[in-house]
Amino acid sequence: MGYSLKIVQNTVLKKKPINSSELSDNEKHDIATGDYELHSWVDFDEDDNHWRVAFLNDRFHDSSTWLVYTGHVEIWKDDIMIRPLFPATSTLLKDYKPCGTAGLNGLDRQIIAVMNELSPGSLVDFSDLNISVAGPHVHPFVQAKAKHALAKAIQKGGRRLKLNSGYRTIAQQLLLYNHKQQGRCGQTLPVAVPGTSNHQSGLALDTPDWSFWKEILPDFGWRWFGLRDRVHFDFPGTHLGSHAIKAFQILWNRNNLNDQIKDDGQWGSQTQRRVNSSPVEGFGTSLNGFRGLRLTEPPFMEGEDVKKVQQALIDAGLSVGRTGADGQYGPATFAAVKEFQAREGLLVDGVVGSVTLRKLGILEL
Ligand SMILES: [Zn+2]
Fold first, then answer.
1. CATH for 67
2. Are 114 and 250 contacting, i.e. CB atoms less than 8 angstroms apart?
3. Residue 211 C-alpha to ligand 1 middle, in angstroms?
4. 93-129 residue pLDDT tens
5. Which of 24, 43, 115, 257 shows its CA 20 to 30 Å from the CA of 122?
6. Full-prediction pTM beyond 0.70?
């Protein structure tokens, strides 16, 4: 556990950030490909081309710190590559302008998954009831008591309940809040600060059929909000807003090892900034927040990032197995990566990091 320096191409440790041919023998040290444990490292402020590293175990005993050229190495913390930072190729929440929240589905699913880890069973799926949802952005989750009441109300109503909104993640809530703050999307209704809406607690739903359901739902404990927010109904229950925020904070920390925040379940500017900086398609699905692809025990790593690498390997004339670019980092993909690395004179470890990505043409230099 800890930081390591992965030397992907044979390189030189330096005392000064200049070309190695201009350094005297005691100002440089050859270092071969491989993984080296680090005591610590920092970005080198004086230029963008070097990091300053300190090796564990005093390995290069003649000096405590060295500079390394960023083009030949990567810095890892455990299984996640943290340098180089990739240019943001994904859409961050703060830059997301569409009025609908469907584009946030990838991030939403990751937040909901962590929420279910945090408090198993606190949210139950009610898609088995007679309902229809307006799109993939509508998450049919409520607390168990609220579902029980809803089941009875729908039976009494005798018709399908159409949903415009159900469980809303804090990412969705922040998007609505951003729209309101920036005067977009004709957002005239009041928008709750993320974490405070009953939609984040699994205690609310919005239906376009409000005039029908306002005569039925209240008999089963679901309150109608009145004309101020006429599509909205909510149910009394435990507030899970801080759970919803904590779930995001944990998700962020898992994917941003070099930018850890407090997972205290409190909404504040620190958390708001991180939600705004989250990729709407979810973490690890694009090159932003790259997780470093490798062969794992099953289940294998999977996602769009794997698919991109597989396609590039196929384009380079290598086979990734019978199923082609299936998005699964299995043994055939692992073998193809190693073959590619050997061909390119790189460290042959079957792990896809920045240098391999560049050689594959996925990342520009
Ligand atoms: Zn609502």
1. 2.30.30.40
2. yes
3. 15
4. 998 888 888 788 889 988 988 988 888 878 888 999 9
5. 257
6. no
